[in-house]
Structure formats: C-alpha cells, structure tokens
Amino acid sequence: MTTTETKLTTPAPAAVRTPRPWLRTLGLRSAGVAALLGVWWLVTALEIWPRVLVPTPGDVWDAFLTVAGIRPDENGRTGFSGYTLWQHLGMSLERILLGAGIGTILGIVIGLAIGTIPLVRVLLEPGVTFLRQLPPLAYFSLLVIWFGIDETPKIWLLLIAAMPPVAVATAAAVGGVHRDYVNGARSLGAGRWDVIWWVIVPAALPEILVGIRLGVGVAYTSVVAAETINGVPGIGGMIRDAQRYLQTDVVILGILVLGISGVLLDSCLRWAEHRVGPWRGRA
Amino acid sequence: MSIRKLVTLGLAGLLLATTAACSSSDDDAKATPSDGASTVEAPDTLRIGYQQIPNGDLVVKHNKWLEDALPDTTIDWVRFDSGGDVNTAVVAGSIDIGLAGSSPVTRGLSAPLNIDYQVAWIHDVIGDAESLVARDGTDITAIADLKGHKIATPFASTSHYSLVAALTDAGLSTDDVTLVDLQPADILAAWTRDDIDAAYVWDPTLSQLGGTVLTTSTEQAAAGHPTYDLGVVTTALAQKYPAVVDAWLAAQDKAVAQIKDDPATATEAIGAELDLAPADVTAQLEGLTFLRGTEQLAPEFFGTKAAPGAFAESLHQAAEFLHGQDAIDDVPDVAALQPGIALDALDRTFGQK
C-alpha cells in the first residue's frame, strides 16, 4: 500500500527524467492507476449515479480507516460485522492457504501419477478435466449439504478449485521431461522412484510451480464463493454483509483489498518460480 | 514516446466519450416519463418488484387485475428474493412499486440510503409464519436458554429484527449467542446436520424444521416489535401518476377482500404462483394477518391525514434497532418518518367520502 501511494505522488516526472526502463514502467503504471482514480473521482463528482451506488474514492478511504480500526466512525465504532479488516483478510488468507495447500499437494501427486503411469492417466484424466470445468458455486451447495456451514465445506471448495490446474500442469510437465534424462538415469542403474524423485521432479519443477500459481489464483478467485455461507469473518463474508445493507463503500473496499492482496500473493509465487527455475523461458 | 502519447490521447478521448454518453443517456431517461405525463395519465410501463410471499400481491399478479385496471400500461413484474434487493432496485430506478419487509423499508427511509419512496400498503402483518424454533435434542426450552448457542437467521430481514428484539427482551445480547447469517434453504441444510441449535425463519422453511417454538412474531408484535410486509411506491410515481397508485391500492384491497371472503379462490391463485398445493398455502396464510384498506386507516396502523397512526412510531423503533446493528447512520425521528407514508393516496382511496 505505502509504495503505491509514494508512486502516486510522483508519477510522470520520474519517467521523463530518467531513461532507465524500469522507472519508466513504474511511472506509466502509476499514471494508469492515477488515471483510473481520476475517472472514478470525475464520475462521482458529476453525480451521474446516486452516491449510495457509486461512492467517491474519499468514501472508500473513510470506510478503509473505519474497518481497518484506524479511525472510529461518528458512532465510535470500528471494524465491520464485528471484526476488523485485518481479521477478515487473515481468515480468508488462512482458508486460501489451507485449501490451496492441500489442493496443491494432491494435485502434484495426482499429476505425477497421471504423467508417469499410463493406466492412471486413462482412469483419472477425465475426472480432473471435469472438475476443472466446474464453477465453484455449482458444487458449493452440495458441499454445504454434506459438510455443513463451518470451515470444512470452504476448505473443500478451495481444495477442489486449486487441485485441477496443479494436476494438469504437473502431468504436462512430467510428460515434457526429456526422454534422454530418464534413459540416462536408468542406464546408470536408477530405479523407478529414483528416476521420479531425482530426475522427473526437478526437471518438471518450474512448470509445476506455474501450475501452483494458477491453482492458488483459482482458489483466490473462489474465496468469495466459499464465503457466501457463514463467511464472517472473511473478506467474502464482509462483502456479502455490506451488500445486504447497501454499504457500497465497504463492498468496493473489500474488492480492492482482495485484488491488492491477490497481486502480492501472486508476486511472491512468481518470485519463487524465478528462484527455482531461473532458466525457464530462456533455455 | 509518440505512439504512447497517441495511445494516451486515444484513451482520454474514449473516456470523455463514455462519460458524455452516460450523462446523455441519463437525460433521456429523465425526459421520457415527463413527455408521457403531458399526454396520458398513466406511464407506458409500470415496473413492480414482488416477492414469493403468500399474500394479496400474488393474487393481484395472478389474476392480472392491474393489467385490467390500467389497459394502456405495460406491467412488468420483477421477482426479488429479499427487501434489500428491492431497495437497491428502487435506488437504481429499476422499479416503481415494490414489496419489502418493514426492516429493509426502515433502512431505506433512514440515512445513508434516504430512498425517495413511500409506504402505501401493508401487505400483511407477520404472525406465526415467522418464529424462533429450537432443534429437538437440545436442552433449549426458553429464549434465555439460548445463551452460548448458535442461532441462524437471514440477516437484514424481519426475522433478524424479531430475533434480536426477542433476545434483548430475554436479557441476552447478540454477544451472548453466535448469530449465523443463512438463507432459509441453508438453514434447513444446517438444521438437519445439527450445525445450528435454533433458527428464526419464515414459512415454508419454518414448517420443514419442526422443533420447539420459543417465540413467534405474533408474540413479538404483542411485545411491541411488530413486523410487516409492506408495499412501497416511489415518490416520483406517487406525484406524477396518483391515479396509478390509487388503482394499485384498489387492486390490493380487492385481493385482501378475496383472501378473507373467498379464501378458496385466493389460495388457488397464490398456489399457482408459488407452485404449492392449496392446503399448504392455507396453512401459510394462517401465519399472517391481512388488513383491508379501511382497517389500515385505523389509529394503530397508518391513521388518517388528520390523525396519523402509530405506524411511524413502529418504523422509528425498527430504526433504533438497526442503528444498534450499525446498519444505518442515524435514527430518524417519528416526524421525519411520517412523510414516508403515502397518507394522501390512502385517504383518496379508502377515506370517508
């Protein structure tokens, strides 16, 4: 958050003065964000729509201060639905990490099996492809009937959302490992598990990480669906609660927080991806 | 750089064009109804937000009484699942008349929403059709036993309002229990899995739950917390087309008369709208109280223009509750709520001639 703000205060000049490309990118991006904010402000200033439906950037900022617990509102209250913004976000992240974590492990195992054992490929591939096509809200109703309204169905939903992309990417990565590597290891006396552990996994790891990034991304976009039922605390539950009472500023705040934290999480994973396979896309 | 400048300029141009288009289309929307007003008395289309609640509104819809009364007007019936959505639709200018519970309407008449609509009709007074029930197998026999237990209700609804009122009267605060926001269908699922210990909800879900009844909305009304399903009319419609509002009121009154005098016919119409057997409809209608137009002019409800009734006071109490829930910024006083009741139209249609 703080870096974005400092960027905003000095947008274009940085780009003009220094010829360095990353600074220019930074400047252009800041200008883009500033332009979006400007349009938002302009639209609200013109009062094309009622302020209840389209709140001003200032309203959303005030909502942020109140919900984050920084400054109480005129009635002396902070937070929303009994929790602060950070408790909502923390709970959502916990669900995402748990659901996507289990989903990732399962996805890697299933992907390795599909990629290495032809029989498993025939058996499991249609199921994985089927799951991948389902929108989370479609099976969430079923999960609620089976697992109730507490944490279990939410974790299941995120798990089912995150697993298929990881499995598909892992299977493809395993299939793409150079035959010569496998044959070379075999001729040196490596067994089946040695080949998988010492040759296939390391060679496929960068691609698997791309799959994990995709899986976490899908889990992230599904968290609001997972929190439509008994989702408080949670950003999805907060957005839903605010929508009930037509508190559009809090709805927009929730969307912004989800977007920003999603981008941060994605850049962490991208950083990990570069660490593990710096040669990817170059070799 | 030049290409970038071009792109930037293009984007800016696009933005201006979009903004201009938005504002101009807004002007068009405003202009059309006033053009219509100069020539005919009724608008070309009347958009009505209704809900799947067994009351006279569905009788009017099913029998097309409004279509018959206003032959030159196209009536659009738009279905909503909650009063909150009806509020949003009114703010967005998507409907002219709507049905919402007294909780959402109170929210609409208070800051920050301050929706420009008026209460013109009581579709029903909520009675045993909404109740607080405890699951069999729990040791809960009274409201005070709920301390530390998990209770589900659809938030922002009249049930939510009645539940918190009942808890408060029993000496409990919302912190003493775990409140869960669930829609009726999800309440049923959670109930059968023993995930919740009690629920405040309405029919038909209520009948499906079974369990021990702890309190009903009838009892809550007697304790000073009445809840209603209300008909709201936008102020714009009421001012521009008073005759349309009168026709709508007359149709609603006719429907209530049928529910009271010829329940078999009314039940059939409601059953057709709800896909329910007439026997089920009859059972659900028993949990609601229906009032004829003249009855609604009684002092305990709307009253008359000369002597406004107690209705504004009950809205005021609902507003105090909502303020406690942090759902509205301020509690409007009774005098500020009084203009939110369409006494003009009620007087015209049902007053002493």
TrEMBL record, chain A:
Family the entry assigns: Belongs to the binding-protein-dependent transport system permease family.
Q: What is its main location?
A: membrane
| One GO CC term on file | plasma membrane
Say if the entry is tagged with keyword Transmembrane helix.
yes
- ABC transmembrane type-1 domain ranges (all copies): 93-269
Top-level taxon of origin: Bacteria
Q: How does it sit in the membrane?
A: Multi-pass membrane protein
The reply on keyword Transport is: yes
Designated name of the protein: ABC transporter permease subunit
Sorted UniProt keywords: Cell membrane, Membrane, Transmembrane, Transmembrane helix, Transport
What residue ranges are annotated as transmembrane? Answer: 96-123, 130-149, 155-174, 195-216, 250-272
Automatic annotation (TrEMBL), chain B:
Provide the alphabetized UniProt keywords.
Answer: Signal
From the UniProt record, give one GO term of the biological process aspect. alkanesulfonate transmembrane transport
Q: Point out the signal peptide segment.
A: 1-20
Q: CDD domains, from UniProt?
A: PBP2_taurine
Show the PROSITE patterns listed in the entry.
PROKAR_LIPOPROTEIN
The keyword Lipid biosynthesis belongs to this UniProt entry's keyword annotation: no
Write out the annotated subcellular location.
Periplasm
Query: What InterPro entries would the database entry show?
Result: Peri-bd_TauA, Solute-binding_3/MltF_N, SsuA/THI5
In terms of Pfam families, this protein maps to:
NMT1
Q: Which SMART domains match?
A: PBPb
* Superkingdom of origin organism: Bacteria
Pull one GO CC term from this UniProt entry: periplasmic space
Question: Which residue numbers delimit the Solute-binding protein family 3/N-terminal domain?
Answer: 45-274
Similarity comment: Belongs to the bacterial solute-binding protein SsuA/TauA family.
Which PANTHER family does the UniProt entry name for this protein?
ALIPHATIC SULFONATES-BINDING PROTEIN-RELATED (PTHR30024), TAURINE-BINDING PERIPLASMIC PROTEIN (PTHR30024:SF47)
This one is known as: Glycine/betaine ABC transporter substrate-binding protein
Give the species: Cellulomonas rhizosphaerae
